[in-house]
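Troubleshooting log. The previous structure file for this entry was overwritten by mistake, so regenerating from the original sequence record. Sequence copied from the archived sheet and checked twice against the printout by T.R.
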Amino acid sequence: MRRLIAVLAAAWAAAAVPALAPAQDGPSLGGGSDVGGGEVVGLGQGQRVGPIHYIFADNPEATPIGVEFRAETPPGISVTPDRRAFTIPPGGKATARFSIEVSEAVAPGSYPILVSLVRTDVVSSAGRVTNVPAIGARFAVRVTGQAGTIQARTVDPAGAPVEGTIVVAAELDGGRSFEVARVEGSQLERAVAPGRYEVRLLLGDSERAAETVTVAADAVTAVTLTVETVSFVVAEARPVEEDGKVVVAELLAAVQNAFEPVEGPITLRAVVRREGGPAETVELEQLDRLPLGSTEARLTYRPAAGWDPGTYRVVFELVTPELTLRRAASTPIEVSESGGGRLTLISAGAILAALAALMLVLVARRARTGSD
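Regenerated output below.
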């Protein structure tokens, strides 16, 4: 029995205090810590324990060395040293005492912590592997307190799952926040401390949906984020005037597909309606499928009967076998009594002549560039 106790004690000491690095193998560092391989028990949500734990480093070399305190902690838990940087004389020792603080938004559980003192005076050389000595201590903080549960799922308007990155962030007083969960997929379930949280869906680098919820202790809060995986990013109708009269309108639409290709037929069209008059539907683009990324379509438009005075509103539509997505143009087209007009044959001829002249200039420039 005594022998077993001795073996266990030796094992604990080996886990708690790292072995000294041999001085003859290049840059070295010795030291240890009063924690390692165990748990700091009993820290409640929103509590802080003062600098009662420590990590130390020895300088076994014949010249002074520099070391720096570093800590790897999960979100919501902070480890703060009483001193961060040290210069250790030959044969000397530096000790960093550190405090541990747990945010009120950290859910109960056990969380891994790594603290270390790392040499900062070692210069790396290009093309060579450089050994940077460090003394580290791993332990765990066990948090006690209350918890609730967030259940989140992400769907499209038809109710089908949408795969993306679901992020849950705790919202604290003073505008502070920190991320408590990040999951790839279409569902998330996570125990969290009671409080306010923002649940977001990311598709690539773009946030596509978000909702803020309040979680109560011992309660389950369900969140469903509905995301338009296909959306209009541009919807514009720009009038073109000649002699103060609207002759045509440039219709421009851009659709962003952030999820997966959509099989067709796909139609991009615009519905133009003058207030008090009938609607006219014109097609901008017909596609066999909607690819990932951005798809643009444009059309030079004029009403079949010409422009009558009034306000013309344009609504763009993306029509797929599954759904129809609509987006109104950012501004209507205003045609005044004096400024409106019908596109005459002379006006049309003038526009065509101008376009032809422009094409001739571009061709001439390209030919001149090629000959140079």
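The chain has three domains: 25-121+133-144, 148-226, 230-341. Archived copy saved in two places this time.
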